[in-house]
Structure formats: C-alpha cells, structure tokens
Amino acid sequence: MEITKLEPKERRGLVVVLTGHGKGKTTSAMGMVLRASGHGMRVCIIQFMKGDLYSGEWDGVKLLGDRVELHVTGKGFCGIQGNPYPYDEHRRNAQDAIALALEKLRSDQFDLMVLDEINNALQLKLVDLQQVMAILDARPQGLHLVLTGRDAHPDVIERADTASRVDEIKHAYRRDIEPQPGIDY
Amino acid sequence: MEITKLEPKERRGLVVVLTGHGKGKTTSAMGMVLRASGHGMRVCIIQFMKGDLYSGEWDGVKLLGDRVELHVTGKGFCGIQGNPYPYDEHRRNAQDAIALALEKLRSDQFDLMVLDEINNALQLKLVDLQQVMAILDARPQGLHLVLTGRDAHPDVIERADTASRVDEIKHAYRRDIEPQPGIDY
Questions:
Q1: pLDDT 10s digits, B55-64
Q2: CB contact under 8 A, B8 and A179
Q3: Does A162 sit within 8 Å of B167, measured CB to CB?
Q4: How many domains does one find in chain B?
Q5: Which end is more exposed in chain A, N or C (fewer Cβ atoms within 10 Å of the end residue's Cβ)?
Q6: Is residue A61 within 8 Å of residue A41, measured between CB atoms?
Q7: At B20, which CATH number?
Q8: Whether complex ipTM tops 0.85
C-alpha cells in the first residue's frame, strides 16, 4: 500500500486549547509532544500546576531525546486539600512560569510549546488574562502552542485555531479505584 | 520541594475509552503511551483505521525504544471520500487486527494496549461487537486497555473504568487551514 505523506502548502503554527473536566487534556498534549518528536520538532513543555506528584511523562519525555525540554514549575494544585503551599507561593511560581514561557517563545528555538494547566492557573488567578494574551501575542508564527486545563477562559478559546472540550463520561476514581501508573500519572 | 511518588495499594489494569468527535482521542492515547513508557511499561499499539497517511507518532514511538510495538493494520478510513479500498478489504484488515490484538493480549507481554480507532471500526461493521467484548474478556487483569474512536458502543463504555468524550469547540480545518505536522498528524 502506498503511504501518503502530507505536506501543507503553508506550514503554520496552531494554537490548540484542551479544556473540560474529563481525563485526556494533559495526556493529549503529551501525545502531541510524541507526534511532534516523530517529526523531529523541538518541544518545550512548561507544567504550571503539577510538581509535587511524580508523573510518568517526566521520564517518558527523556526517552524522546534532548529536543524536548520539560519544566516543572508548579507545587501541585493550589487550593486542593492536602496541598501545603500558600496561595502567594503558587502565584510566585506561576509568575516565574509565565516569564519562562515568554523567554522560551522569544528564543525561537521551538516548534511546539505546551503550557500545561495554564487554564487552571488563570482561573485560580495565579496568572492574569493579559499575561496569557501576551504569550499568545509573542508566539512566533510557526510555533504550535498548546494550552491545557479545565475552565479555559473564553478569550483564550477565541484565539485558538483548534479547541476541544474533554468531558467525563465516567472515571475510575468514582468507584474508589486508586490512580494507576501509566494511565493516571 | 518533596516529590511524592504514588504507588497504589493494588495495581490493576484499567479500561479507558476515548470517544467523541473532537480532536484529542488518538492523541490522548499516545500521551498514555509516553507516560507508560516513562514507567518502563511495555506497550502494544494497534491502529485499526489509519495506515494510508503518514503520522508523526509512527516515528515518535520509535524514540521510546523497543518496549513499544506499533502495528498499523488499516488502509485508511473506510468510506471516506478518496479512500480507494473496498469495504471487504477494510473488513479483512480489521479482522486481522482483532486476531493480532487477541494474540498480543494472550502473550501477556504488555502492560498497556492501545486499540486505536476500534470504536470506528465497530461502528462501520469492520469488526463485530462480540469480537470487541471477547478482547475485553481476554484482557489480563493487570493490563491497561485503551480504546479510541468516535461513536463508542454503549456496551463498550459500560465496560470502561474511565471514559471521556472529546467534543469539538472549534477546529482549524473549518477555516480551511490544512492539517499541520506535529498537531494534526
């Protein structure tokens, strides 16, 4: 069988938003990282909220080689029961993450940037709408930018080329099944 | 900061269904492949429908090493305009894919299996409901099984531990933006 390899007449970076309350937003962003790596693209991932809980993707992306950078800037989910860090510390971390994202965008060394859970960070006021808009404005035309997290701001969705809402049909934790490696983290 | 590494009291394989018409189902499955690889898990991916169009994940998974197997058994989307293969040929391929899935399940050599677009294959009658149920029945208790594709059958969702529906909020192709490498393929 003949395999067609598409090549768009015009290559352009897309803004992709993954939102909703179901499982599959960060996961989908990681799938794009895998796919982009297959194309030899250079990837920068900045995780805004995660950081206190190990996730398999941290070691997974190492397997993809040094074209993928992963920055874990968060200290876990702000406001979630059991998270010991005060709001100010979460905000300071998220602010550092914004500065890092702008620096990485401006370096023009990447083909794909993932801002993981930035939608949550915005909703929790750890970052400001105008900061997210500044990132969208600073994006080089050829760079894919993926923004994940529940409750995406309408102005962010407005700027997206492609946006999906992932809704929960069912989830194992509702039947008291513990998070499982490989799937949940 | 201290990083917690979760370990469930009981490790168990989960059945995960990703359905809906939005972007992010196969992509999310690929994210689980990346995550599972980070945990050192062995992965088997069988793509039921794709095959005639190159996708970056084919080379992406090679970077993950020989713990990941990818089988592309399809000849493209049956019934989609421009696909030149007759129904019988699509059905024969999908039947081979089912046999392969059962063989791989029974080998007990994998921690994660992805049956990509199997929901579509079922909906298009390239495979039968009882065949998908037989796969669910044959699954070793410790194996994660991920089934993707639009229009998942209710009986399949019934068997899932976790199921998400990915809906389209917007998609670049509706504004005549061509598919872009790294994001769309």
A1: 999 999 999 9
A2: yes
A3: no
A4: 1
A5: N
A6: no
A7: 3.40.50.300
A8: yes
